[in-house]
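Risk register update: the risk of archive-format incompatibility is retired. Evidence:
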Amino acid sequence: MGKLVCQSCGMPLSKDPKLGGLEKDGAHSQKYCSLCYDDGEFLQPDITATSMQHLVIHALQRQGWPKAIAWLATRRIPKLERWKGPR
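Archived output:
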């Protein structure tokens, strides 16, 4: 099994400084990072998978990633759990 990644943005959960988003009961989410999820809700509930890809590409570029590599890193975002339809 591979590394656990946020099922919204694809960030490895091991890279999340807060160790994951929080559920309503205060427990750490096993699916979503703190940049996407808090208090049992998405921080950007209306964002689309395509918009999330663009947001992540820009964030990675600010960290020094070349645009082409950042784009490759975000290709799996639409296949993550959040984007597979109604929850």
